[in-house]
Model the fold of this input.
Amino acid sequence: MSGVGIDAPGSTQLFIGNEAIARGALEAGIGVASAYPGTPSTEIMASLISVAKEMNFYAEWSVNEKVAMEVAAGASFAGIRAITSMKQNGVNVAFDFLANLVMSGIGAGLVLVSCDDPSTISSSNEQDLRNIAKWLDIPLLEPATFQEAKDMTKWAFDLAEELNTICMIRSVTRIAHARGNVRLGELPKKEQKAHFDSICPVVPTLPKFISYPSAWLHSQLHAKLDKARELFESSPFNWYTGPEEAELLIITGGSCWLYSLEAVKALKLENKVGILKLGTIWPLPRKLIELHLGKSQKILMVEEIDPFLEGSIKELVADLPPATPRPTFYGKHSGHINAYGELNPDLVIEVIASIMNLTYESRPAEYSKKAEEIPFTYMPPRIMTFCSGCPHRATFWAIKNALRLDGRDGFVTGDIGCYTLAIGPAGFFQMRTMYCMGAGAGVANGLGKLGQFGFNQPVLAVCGDSTFFHAAIPALINGIYNKSNFTLVILDNNATAMTGFQPHPGTGVTGMGEITTAVDMEALCHSLGVQVEVCDPFDLENSTATLLKAIAQDGGPRVVIMRRECELVRGRRDKKPPYKVHVDPDKCLGEACGCDRLCTRIFGCPGLVWDSESGKATIDETICTGCGVCTDICPQGAIIREAV
Done:
């Protein structure tokens, strides 16, 4: 067996952070794993699913994060260790159940891994999940290295069972997707037996796993945190490096520890600057922190995103005896470090140099001057766009034309997914709102009830097929129930494409590769009593006509399913394009056409290229997937498709 499931204790493997977390779960002896795909967390479940059958545990891609959390909790209640993973936005979805779960306690070890995304590299917003752990009184750990990611995950299961509460691990994109060496431990060989013990050991007449609205339960939760704090005081995931008396003390954790370490070394301040690295983030190990606070009267807090450690440690300092010297804090509140976005070694170097009154030059001034003199034209423009042959490009082309033909200033509401690119030139600037999954349909509900105020603009809400099952069904039902006037356009490309083509309830296959009943979204919508039309987005004429007809109607919602398999999925399977596409140079009139280079400037498929030397459009055969849609948008018929 290869990858995260390799049975070679003592060996060293090269893992990304997410694989290291998955390996830690395996070494902890999990029996169940559940998740909904969300970058940067996706590879945790992908790694576990890849070995689930061989290692005899159960893993699934759940319909959404709340259900994933509940699946894992159900296994825990029956004595089976379980893990669930999600990105920061996913915790919002699971929050309702999570807030109750912390009150009831658990059975076997239960771990939630949340991967934050500083700078919103692949997210709709930037959140710091450490605040939720503090708010809900959940023990929280954060790895700084790949070895820690593995070891910390394994330990979290023991911790969860000792405290009888769920434990959280917070990772960030740079840990989740970077790669490093991990020394493997033993894989457990014992078989697990599930049994649901429903009797409460404290009050035998009451069910065990119920979040009673009781102050007593809340007091027990605080007692668990006190116990966690005592355990954290001697945790191997906390340590200090540097002089006993430092000119500056850095308190940090996670990936920011690596940035701080590199910055101190670059400035050659190892004998002047100390670093207190914390892996147990909440509750804070108070005694350990108090011990090191006296090392310096200047303390720099290095963390992403919110001033979580900064605020929590200031609270701790406020409780110290009045005569205790108060250090000067540097961080987000002082303006030295931004309370948003990612950090990096260069930023930390600048902050330390500023506090220590040092001058640091990251590169020679002469080099910087030469770099600034390089003409911008040397760098080709690269805009975010849909893949070549993506059906979403054709869908938004049809939407654009339908709304223009309708003439009532209609618009599109949407959410997060590949189709989010429609807020820009890739989707012809058609999408006007973008929030969480399913929000396009939810927002359309409100807009669709404004007729009494003179509102007459057509509203189209778009969502992907995976998003439809995840979050859009309740919004559709709400629209039907309240007779909201909007058109729901489901972009059905038969995959959770944005995060790596994971299956969903409509694909007919589970995450573990088992054939299952495919939930028919068309039949489901019909069963709700809503009008449904199914189109092939590559048939631009029919798609445009269908959308135009849908938005012309009034009353309750209508559904248009744009069904065409993701080109990357089709291409991997079929290994050849459906058509060979080329441009007839005699028919292409170039700038004289009058279309203002509609094909390359507006339609913008990466497979279409403007040849400035010949003054005509051409096809990049390396990139072109042979979908042939561009043949229908050329006014001169100069783009030709031929069956392969």
Q: What stands out?
A: Residues 195 and 471 are 32 Å apart (CA to CA). The chain has a mean pLDDT of 92.
